[in-house]
Each structure stands twice: as C-alpha cells, then as structure tokens.
Amino acid sequence: MITVAAGSTLTLRCQGIEAIPLVCLADVKAPFIADLPPLPVLSLDEPGVRRYGILELTSSAGVAWVEAELRGGLMTVLGDSPTGIVQRRNSPRRPGVYPAKGTAQVDTGAEQRLVAIAGHVQDVSTSGLLLQATADDDRPHLPSAILRTLLHVTMPWGEMTAAVTTVDQRSDQLRGTFEWIDAGDAKALSDFVLSR
To answer: One MF term in GO for this entry (predicted)?
Structure first.
C-alpha cells in the first residue's frame, strides 16, 4: 500500500513556467501509484486554472516522477505507470531539530565556490538527511546548484561531521545522502535512529 501523507510537499513542473509547489491536504492511499485517487492539494494558482506537467510525488514508497494534471484543487496522476521510484525510504530515520552549520560547494556552471550555511536538520536517517538552512548572505533561501555540503550537526551524542551529496534542493531545504561520515558517528547515528 502506498500513502501520500497529509502535509507532504509535492512539486508540479510545467513547460514554460516555474515549478509549482503544492501541499497535500489529506492522506491518500492506493495499492500502486498509478491507482492513486485525485489528491486534494493547496496551490497558489487560481481555482479555475488547469495545468499539466510532471509531478514530483513524495510517498511512503519514496520519490517518483509521474505525469499529472492540476485542476480545481485536485492533483490527478495520469498514464498507466509512473517513471519509477528514485529514492527508496527503507533506511531507518528519525525526525527532529538538530542544529547544523557547514560549507556548501556551489557549481554555477561558470565557476565553483564555497558558501557558509547554517540551519538545522529536520530528518536524519542512516543514509542521509533533510536540511533546512540559509547562507550567510541574508537571503531567505540557499544558493541554487549545491553539489555537496560539509556539515557539522549537533546530535544528542555530540557533534556529527558528514559530507552530504545533494539529491534534491528547494528554497531553504536540501535533501542529500551521506558521501562520507565518520565511522564513530555512523555507528552512533545507527544506534540513535534504531532506538525508537
């Protein structure tokens, strides 16, 4: 059974316009992604607007991209099957608020630079994390095109140091997988997320 939880953030990408962030308003369940009933969503669009595009769908199975239509506050998955799950959520994880600071490697195409960032980890697993942070330039979001980040995270057992490769980045949130983590921190992290 696949569940799209109430409060999940979805992103609809349509040709010729900026990506549209959406919030799912109710839990929706189905045996398969293609069988999901229309999802009630909160959108910044006008009520009568109809849009088609590729939906980044976050569910209990992971993240998948599917063809979808937004109409009248409902997001409907179209087509026979999705493009496939690209991030499986089988790693033990633990939500929380863990202060973090570090350095992000940004690649703008013309140059690569290092940017100091600070914020907190909202969700951590044995394979990666979700970071909410801003840079030291007084902007309300992270710089785009972050390749990897070296982070120092204050965890219950002490400071955890890890290099994180970016999987997805939106505004002030960055989701990534551990590229490197100290062996002692990896053991402490595993014990921490499994202790629930």
So the answer is: cyclic-di-GMP binding
Burial of 7 (0-12, 13-18, 19+ CB in 10 A): exposed
pLDDT in tens, 46-57: 667 788 888 888
| φ/ψ of residue 185, rounded to 5 | -70, -35
DSSP per-residue string spanning the chain: -EEE-TT-EEEEE-TTS--EEEEE-S-EEESSGGGPPPEEEE-SS-TT-EEEEEEEEEETTEEEEEEEEEETTEEEE-SSS-S-EEEE--S-EEEEEEEEEEEEEEE-SS-EEEEEEEEEEEEEESSEEEEEEEETTS-SSPPS-EEEEEEEEEETTEEEEEEEEEEEEETTEEEEEEEEE-HHHHHHHHHHHHT-
Token couple for 97: 């608020």
CA distance 187 to 183: 6
pTM exceeds 0.70: no
Burial of 144 (0-12, 13-18, 19+ CB in 10 A): exposed
